Amino acid sequence: MSSEPTGRRERRAEEDYVVFTRTFRAPIEDVWAAVTEPARLERWVGTWSGEPRSGQVQFRMTAEAEDAPEETQRIEVCDPPRRLVTRSTTPDSEDGPEVDWLLDLELSESDGVTTLTFAQAMPSAEMAASVGPGWDYYLDRLVAAETGGDVEAIDFDSYYPLHAEHYRAMFAG
């Protein structure tokens, strides 16, 4: 399966973001459930545990590996079924600096179609080179999961490194 990069660069509050849009013929509450309920989230990206009312959950990206480590996602905004903003800080590498991951999901519905706008703050072209293709991949898996498609047929090699230079160039300079 081939893919095309779908992200765009957007400036928000003095920060650059990579922004993706996906549409669903489904009510907004259903798409909200697909991006927030652990069992539905696990079908395309990962799962979480914990108590969201505490302001944070433990998230694990099961689509990457069975033994992927958990990371703490701090919930900055939760306005069901319209908006979810989370932040996590992870090491860039074993010896490298920490990387701040700010994710912003917005949903809107019109005439039976729900639009998901997914954005991540993007501090560098190098980060964009891996994150851009990665989110195209995961969001295509979301679409497959929610439309009855074969999530496992979506091959990461059709996204990365194929589209890395596209995203790197988008955020260069």
Describe the structure.
With 173 residues, this protein is of the alpha+beta class. The chain has a single domain, classed as Alpha-D-Glucose-1,6-Bisphosphate, Chain A, domain 4. It is 26% helix and 36% strand. The chain contains 4 helices and 8 strands; from the N terminus they run ββααββββββαα. Strands 1-2-8-7-6-5-4-3 form an 8-stranded antiparallel β-sheet. Helix 3 packs across helix 4. The longest helix has 23 residues. The mean pLDDT is 93.
Give a short synopsis of this structure.
This protein has 173 residues and is α+β, with helices and mostly antiparallel strands. The protein has helices at 28-36, 38-42, 125-147, 164-171, and strands spanning 8-12, 15-24, 47-49, 56-60, 71-79, 83-91, 98-110, 113-121. Helix 3 packs across helix 4.
What keywords describe this structure?
alpha+beta, 8 strands, Alpha-D-Glucose-1,6-Bisphosphate, Chain A, domain 4, 173 residues, globular, single chain, 8-stranded antiparallel beta sheet, 36% strand
- What's the helical proportion of residues? 25-40%
Whole-number total of structural domains = 1
Structural class: alpha+beta
> Which strands sit side by side, in order, in the main sheet?
1-2-8-7-6-5-4-3
The chain-level mean pLDDT equals: 93
The CATH superfamily bears the name: START domain
CATH topology: Alpha-D-Glucose-1,6-Bisphosphate, Chain A, domain 4
CATH class group: Alpha Beta
Q: What is the H/E order?
A: EEHHEEEEEEHH
Q: For the terminal residues, how far apart are their CA atoms? A: 32 Å
The global form is: globular
Question: What radius of gyration results from the CA coordinates?
Answer: 16 Å
Q: What kind of sheet is the major sheet?
A: 8 strands, antiparallel
Strand residue percentage: 35-45%
Low-confidence stretches: none
Count of beta strands: 8
In the CATH classification, which architecture applies? Answer: 2-Layer Sandwich
Count of discrete alpha- or pi-helical segments spanning 4 or more residues:
4
